[in-house]
Amino acid sequence: MDKTQQLPKNPAPQEWLAQDLSQNYVASYKPFNFVDGEGVRCSLYVSGCKFSCPGCYNKIAQNFHYGQPYTKELEDEIIQDLSHSYVQGLTLLGGEPFLNTTVCLQLSKRIRAEFGHDKDIWSWTGYTWDELMQESADKLELLSYLDILVDGRFLLAQKDLTLQFRGSANQRIINVPASLAQKQVVLWDKLIK
Ligand code: SF4
């Protein structure tokens, strides 16, 4: 079969839970990059994803045991890196951040405790916004800490490398606080393409 005709998996609501799947592992940490969102960012790639998108940009990190355990030392390093005034914020990627909520919640809560909203938090997810609205409490709690969510599976048939911060045209860059307040998806106001 043509690879563009293969599709990612579609879980039922609350079928996949971090409490059953996450090993609290991280695939990599990339401080001071310019590609994972707006401004200078520190990016944490958590390990484990079950969407199995054909053409996944980080297939090795679909394995929940890939990489290293998340540690207090790494968290302290991330906080120290974020403290520089030229760093705009943290980006969570994977793997699937919403299937690694223990790690992502712990880090997000600490960022809000130490920096308030001086640093923003972006996350990528294979879930769509509508799917997340039907998901488990831990996923909704993580969403509550985010500023920006890039949602949806990567679909090879809609691949477009000219898009801002996403790989396929179905994915959206969502303003999370505005979307939660208005109970409907509000797109990032700096979206150009
Ligand atoms: S959701 Fe992202 S990490 Fe997961 S398989 Fe799809 S492209 Fe890969």
TrEMBL record:
Its cofactor is [4Fe-4S] cluster. Keywords: 4Fe-4S, Iron, Iron-sulfur, Metal-binding, Oxidoreductase, S-adenosyl-L-methionine. Its EC number is 1.97.1.-. InterPro entries: Aldolase_TIM, NrdG, Organic_radical-activating, rSAM, rSAM_sf. The keyword Transmembrane helix does not apply. Signal peptide: none annotated. GO terms for molecular function: 4 iron, 4 sulfur cluster binding; [formate-C-acetyltransferase]-activating enzyme activity; metal ion binding; ribonucleoside-diphosphate reductase activity, thioredoxin disulfide as acceptor. It is an enzyme of class 1 (oxidoreductase). Gene3D superfamilies: Aldolase class I. It holds the Pfam family Fer4_12. It comes from the Bacteria. Activation of anaerobic ribonucleoside-triphosphate reductase under anaerobic conditions by generation of an organic free radical, using S-adenosylmethionine and reduced flavodoxin as cosubstrates to produce 5'-deoxy-adenosine. Belongs to the organic radical-activating enzymes family. This is Anaerobic ribonucleoside-triphosphate reductase-activating protein.
